[in-house]
Design goal:
single chain; 18 strands; binds zinc ion; Urease, subunit C, domain 1; TIM Barrel; 2 domains; 28% helix; 439 residues; binds N-carbamoyl-L-aspartate; four-stranded mixed sheet
Length: 439
């Protein structure tokens, strides 16, 4: 069977926006034309009516929780959430139980991802055992087993010697080293950003120097080793400045920012019970938020990654002192960015495609399509950008509902997601959600 998508809005190879008819056969895009295509009798025809068709989105930072924490999310539910968000490739974090810290575990994990994943689920290996050990894991073996990169996400690498050894090993196998920046000695048991807001709420604040001092250290180590160093969830103004300077110094550094650090800051926290505003790194100041926006727009920050961090309702219960760190992101990313960056006129559709497709694919050397063209693998997502809706936790395909964006009205909705030419999400038959109102 062939799939004919009529009247889709695309960003073509030159970056121009055009209206096209797109023919998909097997796992490939066979034709992209501006004239009518006569469908065969058994062709599946979809009227796009101007919906935006792009290569499937790529998220280099997700938590799928399986094995170890299946009450929060599984590979099946996480990848359904990804498909519903228009993502066709994700890179899954290793804060699992067991942590994939040797080749046998990594291979098992890749098998799980392959068997249960509705989309392409790549896997990071851990820098060290338990995400905290000072001895670096067997990175060469893990790379040979298929690790896409290395990180202890969830924990900062406390020792410079450990980080240096990890970078040397990652450089030797030509895989990226991804850093969750958190110097434990500067955290003060913080549950939000240190400063006036934390004081007003009477909550312990984490010093932003925990991020920036470790970043400064790592950039120096990255320069010395030549490793590809990738900054996870960059959240501070000084951090953006450090990355900017490092790039001019020739350090091989890339950086991601999360939608929530672009769109929220600590002033959004009105009460300690709003636990869906609790995550690591914490929401920072308005000046930090402005700086990460500017950094994304000027290319200092390369890409957006959601840090999809599902937690159960029980884990997010209580207040900032007790609730788990982290929020979901896969199902709200596109509409939030579309609404606040494209519709508002701050950026173009081509830039959005850069942040969510091209930059992640190129930084992590992924075999994913990055531009809509004939012959491309049919990993595709289509978004209705005339559709406005209010984000509703009941509709999430994720097991989790811990999103601070529930209740916000946004523009843009995934209508179709395809992986290798197979439809993995279709809004017209979407019945993935199933959360009770009072969950
Ligand atoms: N971002 C978070 O607040 N939490 C993440 C861990 C992480 O990304 O550091 C999680 O695994 O829940
Ligand atoms: Zn992290
Ligand atoms: Zn994370």
């Amino acid at each position: 069977m062939r799939l004919l998508i009529k009247g889709a809005t695309i960003v073509d190879e030159t970056g121009a926006v055009a209206r096209r008819n797109v023919l998909i056969q097997g796992d490939k895009v066979m034709a992209i034309v501006d004239h009518d295509l006569e469908p065969n009798d058994d062709d599946h025809v979809i009227e796009a009516q101007g919906a935006v068709l792009m290569p499937g989105l790529i998220d280099v930072h997700v938590h799928f929780r399986e094995p170890g924490f299946e009450d929060k999310e599984t590979i099946a539910t996480g990848s359904r959430a990804a498909a519903r968000g228009g993502f066709t490739t994700v890179l899954a974090m290793p804060n699992l139980n067991p942590v994939p810290v040797k080749a046998t575990l990594l291979r098992q994990q890749l098998r799980r991802n392959e068997e249960s994943g509705l989309i392409h689920v790549k896997q990071y290996g851990a820098i060290s055992a338990n995400l905290t050990a000072e001895t670096v894991s067997p990175i060469e073996e893990l790379a040979a087993a298929g690790a896409i990169g290395f990180t202890n996400d969830g924990k900062g690498v406390q020792s410079a010697a450990t980080m240096l050894a990890a970078m040397k090993a990652a450089k030797a196998v030509n895989r990226p080293l991804v850093a969750h920046l958190e110097d434990q000695s500067l955290m003060n048991g913080g549950v939000m950003n240190m400063g006036e807001r934390a004081d007003q709420l009477g909550l312990p604040g984490a010093d932003p120097l925990a991020e920036t001092s470790q970043l400064a250290r790592d950039l120096v180590l990255a320069q010395a080793t030549g490793v590809h160093y990738h900054v996870a969830h960059l959240s501070t103004k000084v951090g953006v400045e450090l990355v900017r300077v490092a790039k001019t110094m020739g350090v091989h550094v890339t950086a991601e920012v999360s939608p929530h650090h672009l769109l929220l800051d600590e002033t959004d926290i009105q009460s300690a019970t709003q636990t869906n505003l609790k995550m690591n790194p914490p929401l920072r100041t308005p000046a930090d938020r402005e700086a990460v926006i500017a950094g994304l727009l000027d290319g200092t920050i390369d890409m957006v990654a959601t840090d999809h961090a599902p937690h159960s309702v029980a884990d997010k219960r209580g207040d900032f002192r007790t609730a788990a760190f982290g929020i979901t992101g896969l199902e709200t990313c596109f509409p939030l960015l579309y609404t606040h960056f494209i519709e508002s006129g701050l950026a173009t559709l081509a830039q959005l495609q850069q942040w969510l497709v091209k930059a992640p694919a190129s930084a992590f050397d992924l075999d994913a399509p990055t531009v809509l063209k004939v012959g491309m693998k049919a990993d595709l997502a289509m978004f209705d950008i005339s559709h406005r809706h209010t984000i509703n936790a009941n509709e999430f395909a994720s097991k989790a509902v811990n999103s601070p964006f529930v209740g916000q009205t946004v523009t843009g909705m995934t209508v179709l997601t395809m992986v290798d030419g197979e439809i993995v999400y279709d809004a017209t038959t979407d019945n993935t959600g199933g959360h009770d109102d009072n969950e």
